[in-house]
Description:
alpha+beta, Butyryl-CoA Dehydrogenase, subunit A, domain 2, Butyryl-CoA Dehydrogenase, subunit A, domain 3, two-stranded antiparallel ribbon, two-stranded antiparallel sheet, about 45% helix, about 15% strand
Amino acid sequence: MATHALVQANLTINSKPYGPHVFIVPVRSSTDLSPLPNISIGDIGSKSFGGFASIDNGFVRFNQVRIPRKNMLQRHSQVEKGGNYVHAQQERMSYGSMITLRVAVVNAESYNLTRALTIAIRYTTIRRQFSSSSKEGAGKEDQVITYSSVKFRLFPLLGMAFAYLFASKELKSLYVTMMAQLKIRGKSTKLAEVHALSSGLKACSTWDCLAGIEECRKACGGHGYSAYSGIGHIWANGAPSQTYEGTILRLVAELRR
Length: 257
């Protein structure tokens, strides 16, 4: 069990808000692991569709919990002992923590689609059903992958998978450049660009890849409905990615502003 948590909370000094900042907060006793005073901790229970079944996701509630000043992560912005707030060199630096997850999600869902496609294409290549020959018993039945309807469902997804994989690699490269600039100079010319790209790609890739994974499952027929195919597990673990950091509707609202 974790005894400390990395918490993003609004920083307020003398009733003046300074926006969200990140703090290291003790949540459990280091001796008996019981929750500390005014802190409630619990498990959220089973997740939809059986996704992330091996991971315990929980909640934490704080009620008038004081966080010492020294517990604030202060590489880019600081609070001095006298209470004076020192701004980061670049506004909206907090975008950085959100970008990290978005970059990871784009990469993960791209690979999830390729995994589902690998299963579906291999299965429909091996699986034979019916024969196009008019002569009874003329030979082997046709591979399911040769059906026009199956090609129409799987081949465009294969192209989409490559597109998102290439996009995720380029996004990761921009992210690495941005982080290097932040580490050296405390600001980056790439912050706004990577924030916009990661937000858009995160929304589009999760929407498209999850729909593609489901199409792969259906292309496998009854085999796709079986847990042994592996596709259901891939989809269940990827499903929450559509609502990490908010839904696509939130992105549209941001872009309209």
